[in-house]
Give the backbone structure.
Amino acid sequence: MPSDWERALAVVAHPDDLEYGGSGAVARWTDEGRTVTYLLATRGEAGIDGMAPEEAAPVREREQIASARVVGVEQVEFLDHPDGMIEYGLPLRRDIAAAIRRHRPQLVVMTNHRETWPGGPWLNMADHRNVGLATLDAVRDAANRWVFRDLLDAGLEPWGGVRWVAVAASPQATHAVDITATIDRAVASLREHRAYLAGLGEAGMGDPDTFLRQAAADAGRRFGNVLACTFELFPM
């Protein structure tokens, strides 16, 4: 993975998305003195079957903020698009482009926008795909002065300094980050999603420690048999 950058913006659909594939890398980056900001399209209000969305939204927001702090992320923003019903389109692209202009990252991180997940035929959900595609387009939108001209009126000048987009948990991974030293914090960050994990129950992915360590070991087999977070990397 590239290392000559200072600021990253991680854009995902829901609370817990980064914890299932990217937080170990985030912990390593913040340990190295880099700044990472989280941008979430929703508050995850539709993610707990036994909890009404009005109750779930503030719970999941608090859990995500606590989870981010475990891996050294202090700034977490939420866009309030509807969980489970995110539409690809200009409003979503504009919101993400505005965040890119505000935070001026050199690296944009997102989660898998492909139709399936690594290692099997499991289908990816529309929220992930739509946010991912909108993020890819918003990187270019953020650099174009004449796209979303109202952002100029809001004082957000164009930012064309994004050099890479890194897609976590992609079935077409090309790069990896060694997270051997940060796997414990990756697990701890996922455990902060207590209400969400409790809501999954037996339908979930099992114990976070077992799941994440096994996933990191599987991912790292291609990269020297280390514990790893993998990414599909797009140079811009």
About this structure: Residues 108 and 165 are 5 Å apart (CA to CA). The chain is about 40% helix and 15% strand. The longest helix spans residues 53-70. The mean pLDDT is 96.
